[in-house]
Amino acid sequence: MKKKILVFGVTGLLGTSIEKIFKKDKNYKFIGCSHRDIDITNHKKLKKLLQKHRPNFVINTVALIGINFCEKNPEKTMNVNAFSVYNLAKICKSLNITLVQISTHAVFDGIKKKPYDENDATNTCGDNTGIAFVEWIPLRWLSLSEPQENKYLYYQI
Fold first, then answer.
1. Which of 14, 51, 120, 126 is 20 to 30 A from 104, comparing alpha carbons?
2. Residue 26 within any structural domain of the chain
3. For residue 64, what are the CA distances in angstroms to 55, 70, 100, 114?
4. How does pLDDT run across 85-111, given as a tens digit for each residue?
């Protein structure tokens, strides 16, 4: 039986690349969602969509990007980039869905000469409003389930 993969942010650069990979693979049924299909900040609609499709995996590539835009729109940015991800993690846990959350390097200043990892201290080039909350989220995902049941993956690229 094919495993179902649902990808949020399918019209973005990363989502489009993920779609190309999984649409070719006969072992997976690919379900793509863009901002036209779902408002990721709407918890009730998000849960309803996941209950309808019952994917084995959810890959979230949704994010508001651009440091200047995000700093000028902190509330919208936090709703999309932080609160919706936290809610998505809770929904996935309740439905026993593996969540793969993909983040970017935008919380780092770029000074380090080798690749950053999740243990590195954050330091953006601009206003750090909300950084502490964003750092807190992966820790909360991990505590949403017992270690032997941990089905939440966080990738920073």
1. 51
2. yes
3. 24, 7, 17, 25
4. 989 999 999 999 999 887 665 666 677
Range of the domain at 82: 3-125+136-146
Structural domains in the chain (count): 1
State if pTM tops 0.85: no
Residue 155 lies in a domain: no
Distance CA 6, CA 40 (A): 13
Specify if 131 maps to a domain.
Answer: no
- Looking up residue 34, the CATH number of its domain turns out to be 3.40.50.720
Which residues are bridge partners to 153 per DSSP? 100
Residue 100 amino acid letter: V
Q: How far apart are CA 114 and CA 80, in angstroms?
A: 29
Q: H helices within 25-101, ranges in order?
A: 43-53, 67-72, 74-78, 84-94
Distance in angstroms (rounded) separating the CA atoms of residues 152 and 60: 11
